[in-house]
Specification:
Blueprint lengths: L5 E3 L4 E3 L2 H5 L5 E2 L5 H13 L4 E4 L3 H10 L4 E3 L4 E4 L11 E5 L5 H13 L4 E4 L7 H5 L2 H4 L4 E6 L5 H6 L6 E5 L11 H8 L7 E2 L5 H14 L3
Parallel strand pairs: 3-4, 7-8, 7-9, 9-10, 10-11
Antiparallel strand pairs: 1-2, 4-6, 5-6
């Protein structure tokens, strides 16, 4: 297959030169796409020798992809499909993904799966929210081993501020649409993170685990290996 800037499928123009420009290949966003369309885009990327990552995928998307590519993997909680790719060359965790509570895991797993698809090593540290601060403090040594931290939290979104007051690494905060009462579908945690008193906390959009993974990957590309 000839590597042009875009491979035109009629319903989609698959960008085969994105990795050269941006450091990562095209990623398939499955919401709103028919399963057959996801399969066709997957076939173009895979045929071009690129690793395939499909986000916000449902079971119907995966069933169609698996029928064509039996080696594809469905990460159910993360709602991601992966096909091909390389393992991280780093034995130490490059990114620690911190999750406040189990209800935040779909977004936290999206972060982790996307990072691994980008070839990054990930340490998953779950259920360390501020409701039980001793759980976070007990993991500090482990957290400080990573080069970049991604902190996923709903409710009032307090965890990134607490973490940033304890570490020197870059902290990327991910608000989730999790919470009691008037959490406004994650707006409460988003505003809490944007108003963080933790200096230097960067914030992505609500439930945007993919965006946080991309930001961490960009940061790591600038750091000494």
């Amino acid at each position: 297959m000839e590597h042009s800037e875009a491979f035109d499928l009629g319903f989609a123009r698959v960008d085969l030169s994105r990795a050269d420009r941006c450091g990562r290949p095209e990623v398939i966003f499955c919401e709103g796409k028919l399963p057959t369309e996801v399969v066709e885009i997957t076939a173009v990327l895979h045929g071009a020798g690129q690793a395939v990552l499909a986000t916000r995928a449902g079971a119907d998307h995966f069933a169609a992809v698996q029928q064509r590519f039996p080696e594809a993997v469905f990460h159910q909680r993360a709602r991601c499909i992966t096909l091909g790719g390389t393992n991280s060359s780093s034995s130490a965790p490059q990114v620690a993904v911190l999750c406040a509570g189990t209800s935040d895991l779909p977004v936290a797993e999206e972060v982790a799966v996307c990072l691994e698809a980008f070839g990054r090593s990930v340490d998953r540290i779950w259920d360390i929210g501020v409701a039980g601060l001793h759980r976070l403090l007990g993991e500090l040594e482990r957290i400080r081993r990573a080069k970049v931290l991604i902190v996923v939290a709903g409710m009032e979104g307090a965890l990134p501020s607490v973490v940033k007051g304890l570490v020197s690494q870059p902290v990327i905060a991910v608000p989730t649409s999790v919470g009691y009462g008037a959490n406004f579908a994650g707006l409460a945690s988003l505003l809490g993170m944007l108003n963080s008193c933790g200096s230097g906390v960067c914030v992505v959009n609500i439930d945007n685990g993919f965006g946080a993974a991309c930001a961490a990957d960009d940061i790591l590309r600038l750091l000494p290996s």
